[in-house]
C-alpha cells in the first residue's frame, strides 16, 4: 500500500522528527566533500518549515561504534544545511541528553535543529526501546526520509516510529520516490525489462539474481562475478577473482535461467592489477594463467548495448569492471552510455553504480539514481522493510 507522505500532514505549530541520511563524507578537517545526501533531504525539510512546523533532524554519520567520537560529529551537516536553507540551523551537542532535550523543547515554528550522531548512543544499533522513546518524546510527527538505512532495524528506523504510535508517521519525498521506483516499477515494468548486475561477488547478489530472473526478460551479468559463472560453465578463468564455493549455485542459476541470463563472451584482462599492465582480450571461459579479468570485452559491450537499446525498463546495480582504473572503465562507461541513450525507464541502484554514473556525467540522463546501495539491493530482492511497512497508509 502507498504510504502517507509529509505533505499530507498538518504540521502547523508541530515538531517533526525527520530521520534523514546525512552520512556524508568528511575530509580530515571535518569539511563535507559531497553534500548530495543533505540536498536530497531539502524538499521534506522545506515542506515542514514553509508550512509553519519545526524540524528535529536525526542521522548517523560513519561508524563511531556506540560512543562519542569528534571525527564523526554531525555538526558539519548542521552548518551545511544552514547554508543550503539560507536560515539558521541549531545543533545539539548530544542526542537525547540535556542539550537535545532543551533545544527541542524550545523550538518555534520555522526552526530547525540537528541532533548529534545517533550512533554515539549504543541504543541506536541495538534498537533500544528506551532510547527510541526519548527521541519519540521530542516530537509530534515522525518522518522517514532516510532510504539508505530503510533496510536496517536501528532504533531510529523502527523503534522510534513504533514508540510514536498514535501520532502521524509518514515518508519523506525521497523515501517515497525510492519506493516508487525500486518497488512499484519492478512490480509492473514496461517490457522488455532488462537488469544489469555487476560487482565482485556472486554471493552478494544471489538473491537479487534469483528474484530478477522471475520478473525480468534478460539479466546481464558483468564484473568479477561473471568469472564464477564461467567456472560453472567449465571454463578457465586464469587468476581472476572467483568464488569456487559458489560454482554449484551458479550452475543452478544457469539451469534455471535458460537464455534469460546474458553472460560476457569476452573479457579485457591484465597480467597485474595496474593501469600499466600487459593487456589482452580473451574469451571469458578461456582466460590463461597469469591473467585476470578486469572488465567486459568489446564483443560483450556490443551485445549488452543492443539489449539495453531494446529495453523499456532498465535496472543497473554494480559496475562491469574496475571502473576506477582506465582502460578497465570502458565496460562500465559503455553500459552507462547505453542506458543514457535509451528511451527506457532507468533505475541506477546506488553504491558503485551511482558513483560510476556520477563520475561519468550521466546523472541527468537516467530516470532515477538510488541513494541507498544496500537498501536498493534488498528491495530488488523483493524484501519488505519494517521501517516503511509500519508507517501510515495514504
Descriptive tags:
394 residues; alpha/beta; Rossmann fold; 2 domains; six-stranded parallel sheet; 17 strands; 38% helix; elongated
The 3D shape can be described as elongated
CATH architecture tag of the largest domain: 3-Layer(aba) Sandwich
Low-confidence stretches: none
Largest sheet: 6 strands, parallel
Taken together, the total number of domains comes to: 2
CATH superfamily heading of the largest domain: Phosphoglycerate kinase, N-terminal domain
Quaternary state of this entry equals: single chain
Number of helices: 15
What is the average of the pLDDT values?
A: 94
Radius of gyration: 23 Å
And the CATH topology of the largest domain? Rossmann fold
What is the fold's blueprint, element by element?
Elements: E1 15-20, H1 36-50, E2 54-58, H2 75-85, E3 90-91, H3 98-105, E4 112-114, H4 122-126, H5 129-136, E5 141-145, H6 155-163, E6 169-171, H7 173-187, E7 193-197, H8 202-215, E8 218-221, H9 225-232, E9 236-237, H10 247-257, E10 261-262, E11 266-270, E12 279-283, E13 286-287, E14 292-296, H11 298-309, E15 313-317, H12 330-341, E16 345-348, H13 351-359, E17 368-369, H14 373-380, H15 386-389
Parallel strand pairs: 1-2, 1-5, 2-4, 3-4, 5-6, 7-8, 7-15, 8-10, 9-13, 15-16, 16-17
Antiparallel strand pairs: 11-12, 11-14
Helix pairs in contact: 1-2, 5-6, 8-10, 9-10, 11-12
